[in-house]
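Appendix C: a fully annotated inverse folding record. The material below is reproduced so that readers can follow the format used throughout the book. The structure is listed first as tokens, followed by the designed sequence.
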């Protein structure tokens, strides 16, 4: 029984009341997610989103972000400019009120914004609180106003600096506080570029630019086609069913529905749902409405035009969405996002809005473009037949005990631990390396699955064909998560899946084939951080009984340098005319490994499998859109795209150095 404590000194003086922006500095993670790299870049998003909202509302046409060479960031727009008059409730200028009080802004009443992405209204003030220095400049009626802050504290009254030729609008410059962002305050130019490119796609007609004063790089985006251009961008490198993109933009009651659709010849669905320019990766009512209408319209068209026979069952949603690329953008005055992260839209009326627009206008599109409609239905019919074939193939291998979790592949040397959190699966290239790995492993926690040859390129194959490939089936069996509609991440038997291939072109190709399979068919395994690439050594250097392993040419040279310096320091005479290997005192010829099979069990353990010595590279997909494009280029049918991609990155020949 817990003994109850008493404390007569516990009174109101012990209750801490945080005023103004103090709560933000006290618990920054509550407002921006983290104080690491992600949280740091979220600061730019919070400020830039305000400018985007001005563009969405029709008041701004130009937005610029400048990464200053002194570490600051400046975001400027040509919108209305934050008001500078005295606020009736606070008695301070409206500019100061917006930048120092949480939940103060034009997004809570009906007059400031009809639509905005900043639902919670804490953006600018939070950035102010987490900045060492924050400068706001506003132009109204040709007059320039300026207000400065240090760590959220106002530095004097708002200043009227006089006439200016600058256009009306707002310019915010901030310097992140290093005492908050202890991992560093250096911004990533590519992150800013990707974020602004997406916003430009979603805000048609807006000119968006970014400039990096540190490197003098600059880029600008303007998409008159908006989300139509976005869909075309996502389909680059893929053979599209038709060049013509379906596009509709219609107002329904107080909301706007905008949809763009184009099919391609792949087996992958890419649908990106947005609400007020905010990506909702977990979907929501707008996605449900879109999928429901799409399935209904295509089935109705197929029945009406005799493309589906009377006795044939309707096409499933999965059949219809194979090869689909679509953007759904809804704009509404009061979005109800689920959670602070805004991952899912909850407004029930939005489902009806999207269904209404899609039912009417996608039907028109199919009727007016019968050749395109026939191709879309034909592709869905092929997908349906493949789905049935895959089901038959899956049932067949299940009957044989292949995918039911009871019968593990005979080539798998499993570990004795049944705890996935400590278990590792090494997927090894070749039986020879597999034998060494089995002999050198820690059998309690490390399982070995050798693969023979190159696995199937799943970028060009449906599930039914995949289930006829022994290496793919063995991998599915070993992992324990199933495949297709039977996939269940809870069945995963290992929380560290290590792809261990030779350090050559063939090895990188095999690793890429495996990554393609995992990314396309077991995406959650990758997203949760369970997939790794092993990095085997390239060189073995021996000095007496000592062994040194080098994982790159640079590391080999560094080891030789250190060995030579050590010999000189000990008074050993070094022949400067001799080659570096002799100068370093190597007692055996420098050995370069051509493959994992050249290592014995002890060497493989020491270099690539021992947790104390090994080098593992965790596979992360921070930008799924970018990863999808790269897998399409590397593994798809477009030879010219693949050739161009490889040539432009020839110096980064190792797989882990590619920007995937």
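Designed amino acids, in order:
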């Amino acid at each position: 029984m817990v003994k109850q404590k008493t404390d007569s000194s516990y009174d109101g003086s012990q209750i801490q009341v945080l005023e103004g922006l103090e709560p933000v500095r006290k618990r920054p993670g509550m407002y921006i997610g983290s104080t690491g790299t992600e949280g740091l870049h979220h600061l730019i998003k919070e400020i830039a989103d305000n400018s985007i909202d001005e563009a969405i509302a029709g008041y701004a046409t130009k937005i610029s972000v400048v990464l200053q060479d002194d570490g600051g960031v400046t975001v400027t727009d040509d919108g209305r400019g934050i008001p500078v008059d005295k606020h009736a409730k606070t008695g301070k200028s409206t500019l100061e009120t917006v930048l120092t009080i949480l939940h103060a802004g034009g997004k809570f009443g009906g007059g400031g914004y009809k639509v905005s992405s900043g639902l919670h209204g804490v953006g600018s003030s939070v950035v102010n609180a987490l900045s060492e220095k924050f400068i706001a400049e506003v132009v109204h009626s040709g007059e320039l106003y300026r207000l400065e802050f240090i760590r959220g504290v106002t530095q004097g009254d708002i200043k009227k600096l006089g006439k200016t030729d600058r256009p009306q609008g707002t310019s915010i410059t901030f310097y992140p506080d290093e005492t908050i962002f202890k991992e560093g305050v250096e911004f990533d130019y590519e992150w800013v570029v990707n974020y602004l490119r997406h916003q430009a796609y979603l805000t048609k007609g807006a000119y968006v630019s970014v400039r990096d004063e540190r490197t003098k790089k600059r880029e600008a985006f303007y998409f008159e086609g908006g989300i139509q251009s976005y869909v075309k961008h996502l389909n680059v490198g893929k053979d599209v069913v038709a060049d013509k993109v379906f596009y509709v933009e219609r107002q329904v009651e107080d909301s706007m529905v905008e949809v763009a659709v184009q099919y391609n010849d792949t087996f992958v669905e890419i649908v990106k749902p947005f609400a007020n320019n905010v990506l909702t990766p977990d979907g929501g009512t707008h996605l449900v409405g879109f999928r429901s209408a799409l399935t209904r319209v295509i089935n109705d068209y197929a029945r009406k035009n005799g493309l589906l026979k009377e006795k044939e069952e309707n096409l499933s949603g999965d059949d219809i969405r194979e090869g689909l690329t679509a953007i759904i953008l809804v704009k509404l005055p009061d979005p109800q996002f689920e959670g602070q992260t805004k991952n899912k839209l909850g407004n029930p009326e939005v489902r009806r809005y999207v269904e209404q627009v899609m039912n009417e206008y996608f039907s028109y599109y199919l009727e007016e473009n019968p050749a395109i409609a026939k191709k879309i239905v034909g592709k869905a019919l092929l997908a349906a037949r493949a789905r049935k074939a895959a089901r038959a193939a899956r049932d067949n291998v299940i009957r044989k005990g292949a995918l039911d979790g009871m019968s593990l592949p005979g080539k798998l040397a499993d570990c004795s631990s049944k705890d996935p959190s400590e278990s590792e699966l090494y997927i090894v290239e070749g039986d020879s390396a597999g034998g060494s790995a089995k002999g050198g492993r820690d059998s309690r926690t490390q399982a070995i699955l050798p693969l023979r040859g190159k696995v199937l390129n799943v970028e060009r194959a449906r599930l039914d064909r995949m289930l006829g490939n022994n290496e793919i089936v063995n991998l599915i069996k070993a992992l324990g998560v199933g495949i297709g509609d039977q996939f269940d991440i809870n069945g995963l038997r290992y929380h560290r899946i290590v792809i261990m291939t030779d350090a050559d072109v063939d090895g990188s190709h095999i690793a890429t084939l495996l990554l393609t399979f995992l990314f396309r068919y077991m995406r959650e395994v990758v997203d949760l951080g369970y997939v790794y690439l092993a990095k085997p050594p390239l060189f073995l250097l021996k000095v007496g009984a000592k062994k040194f392993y080098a994982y790159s040419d640079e590391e080999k040279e560094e080891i030789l340098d250190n060995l030579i310096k050590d010999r000189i320091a000990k008074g050993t005479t070094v022949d400067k005319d001799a080659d570096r290997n002799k100068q370093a005192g190597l007692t055996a010829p420098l050995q370069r490994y051509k493959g994992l099979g050249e290592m014995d069990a002890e060497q493989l353990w020491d270099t690539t499998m021992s947790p104390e010595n090994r080098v593992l590279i965790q596979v992360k997909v921070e930008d799924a859109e970018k990863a999808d494009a790269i897998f399409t280029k590397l593994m798809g049918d477009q030879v010219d795209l693949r050739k161009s991609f490889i040539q432009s990155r020839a110096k980064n020949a190792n797989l882990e150095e590619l920007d995937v």
